[in-house]
TrEMBL record:
It is found in: Membrane. GO terms for cellular component: plasma membrane. Its main location: membrane. One of its GO terms (biological process) is proteolysis. The chain crosses the membrane at residues 45-63. It is a multi-pass membrane protein. PANTHER family: INNER MEMBRANE PROTEIN YBBJ. Keywords: Hydrolase, Membrane, Protease, Transmembrane, Transmembrane helix. The keyword tRNA-binding does not apply. Coiled coil: none annotated. This is Membrane protein implicated in regulation of membrane protease activity.
């Protein structure tokens, strides 16, 4: 009966963690789950309580800090022009002799073709190969 109670306690603590979000109850739930696994071996109740206390403390001190750092680390959003490489653009002005204009990311950009000998007509879809200062280097997919 002991292992079942520890499994239920682990599940309840994990569910309660969803409302709190501080990883405290989750560490206690991990301790309860560890204790449930140990209790399957038929250890006495005092040993189960000791395993719960020790394992919960270990989870709290060694697992919780790296998890908190990972959760609190801000997501990095690349808003530099280099992030536009690989996106699709629409040719607004014919790209002839390596000069023209494309529209992508909601704005107009000067553009040049990857192959300077190729003419890309207006209305074509191109892929941004590189950003060279204020100029998008594009190529037309076959």
């Amino acid at each position: 009966m002991g292992p079942l109670l520890w499994f239920l306690a682990a599940a309840l603590l994990a569910l309660l963690e969803l409302t709190v979000g501080e990883l405290t109850l989750l560490m206690l739930g991990a301790g309860a789950l560890t204790t449930a696994l140990v209790a399957l071996g038929g250890v006495p109740m005092w040993a189960e309580v000791a395993v719960f206390a020790v394992s919960s403390a270990l989870f709290w001190f060694f697992l919780r800090p790296p998890l908190r750092r990972r959760m609190e680390k801000p997501l990095v959003l690349d808003d530099s022009p280099r992030a536009l490489v690989g996106s699709t653009a629409e040719v607004v002005e014919d790209i002839v002799g390596g000069e023209g204009q494309v529209r992508f990311d909601g704005s107009l950009w000067s553009a040049r073709g990857l192959d300077p000998a190729e003419t890309i007509p207006a209305g074509s879809r191109v892929t941004v190969y590189d950003i060279d200062g204020p100029v998008a280097v594009v190529w037309k997919e076959p």
